[in-house]
Amino acid sequence: MGPSLIAALVVVAVAGFALIRTVRIVPQATAGIVERLGRYHRTLLPGLNLVVPFIDRIKGTIDLREQVVSFPPQPVITSDNLVVSIDTVIYFQVVDPRAATYEIANFLIGVEQLTVTTLRNVVGGMDLERTLTSREEINTELRGVLDDATGRWGIRVNRVELKAIDPPASIQDSMEKQMRADRDKRAAVLAAEGQKQAAILTAEGQKQAVVLKARGDAEAAVLKAQAEAEAKAMRAKGEADAIAMVFRAIHEGKPDQQLLAYQYLQMLPKIAQGGANKLWIVPSEMGRALEGLGGLFANAAGTAGDTTGGDGIPGVPEPRSPGAAGIDRADLPGRDLPGKDTPAAG
After folding, report:
1. Residue environment code for 215-250, b if the CB has 16+ CB neighbours within 10 A, otherwise e
2. Handedness of CA 4, 5, 8, 13 (dihedral sign)
3. Where are the domains of the chain?
4. pLDDT tens for each residue of 111-138
5. Shortest CA distance to 74 belongs to which of 88, 59, 85?
């Protein structure tokens, strides 16, 4: 192999190597920092890029995507001198590759240490109870401080989250006891309120039941009284109509004194009927009625002769002349009649 061929091969190799060093491909969401003769020259964008071989050097590539970094638990002292362990998560993104490369040696370590110190400053001004209940406040304050401090590094802090806040074991046990006691208290209060409401509702129900029953009894009594009054009124009206009809019939028939006396005499056995009748009174008008009846019998005897009984009416005994002694007891079969206006025991 001649010297010319060797020289040609060397030239081709150098040209190929130079071509390889000239063409650089940068992935998407990545930026490359180019230094020319040891100084910052430019930033390579994603895609195909050309550099000057042996003069330009790519210092490195930086991920431009949002990154999530979880830091180990950090002990923090609260304002009431209690040590709590806090885990933090930082969401950040490189927005200036040049600043992230030349303004700080390692921005991840810088963000971590800045988060720890800022967290201690924020939590140090709070007591334990406020620390446990003010996560959103701590997150907002941390994000504001970190975003302001990392801005000159070309980093933007998008979000800060506290994963866990762990108080000491003794404090946690006391808090659990306090929470248990508070829950037992609320349970007892709720149970007492439930029993109170149940008793109130039961009493109201009984009261309403008594009121409704009394109202129902009153309405029933009123309706019963109204029904009885209406029944009595209807009976009285019926009796009045019956009496009026009898009175009208009697007056229309124009009865004489003898007929009325005879009817009066027929009603006497009905008055004496009944086992409970122990005492009854013969009215004083009985004598005048029997006198009229005696006149009737005398007239009937005169016209009929001896074909009838002694009183002129078949089956009727001859009446005696009424007087102060009243009616003879033998004149009414099965009944003993007292004297005129004289009560007698049955």
Report:
1. eeeeeeeeeeeeeeeeeeeeeeeeeeeeeeeeeeee
2. negative
3. 12-63, 67-167, 256-345
4. 889 888 888 888 888 888 888 888 888 8
5. 85
In 3D, which of 216, 233, 339, 333 has the Cα closest to residue 287?
339
Pairwise CA distance, residues 44 & 32, whole Å: 5
- Rounded CA-CA distance 161/91 in Å is 8
| Range 67-167: architecture per CATH | 2-Layer Sandwich (3.30)
Could you give the percent of the chain with pLDDT greater than 90?
Answer: 20
Instruction: Record the tokens describing residue 341, joined without a space.
Output: 């206006």
Rg (CA), the chain: 67
SS3 of 157, please? strand
What's the rounded Cα separation, in Å, for the pair 114 and 108?
10
Q: Directed axis angle between helix 107-124 and helix 135-149, to 10°?
A: 140
DSSP-assigned letters across all residues of 201-238 = HHHHHHHHHHHHHHHHHHHHHHHHHHHHHHHHHHHHHH
What is the residue whose two structure tokens read 């150098």? 14
Q: How far apart are CA 144 and CA 154, in angstroms?
A: 15
**Lowest-pLDDT range of 39-48, 208-217, 261-270:** 261-270
Closest Cα partner for 315 from 272, 258, 266? 266
- The yes-or-no verdict on residue 65 having pLDDT over 60 is yes
- The SS3 call for residue 183 is helix
Distance CA 119, CA 72 (A): 13
- The order of strands in the sheet holding 67-77 is 67-77, 83-94, 155-166
Alpha helix stretches (DSSP H) within the chain:
3-22, 97-102, 107-124, 128-133, 135-149, 169-253, 257-272, 285-304
What are 239-281's pLDDT values in tens digits?
A: 888 888 877 877 777 666 666 666 666 766 766 666 655 665 6
Instruction: Answer with the residue of higher pLDDT: 170 or 198.
Output: 198
| Beta-bridge partners for 50 | 23
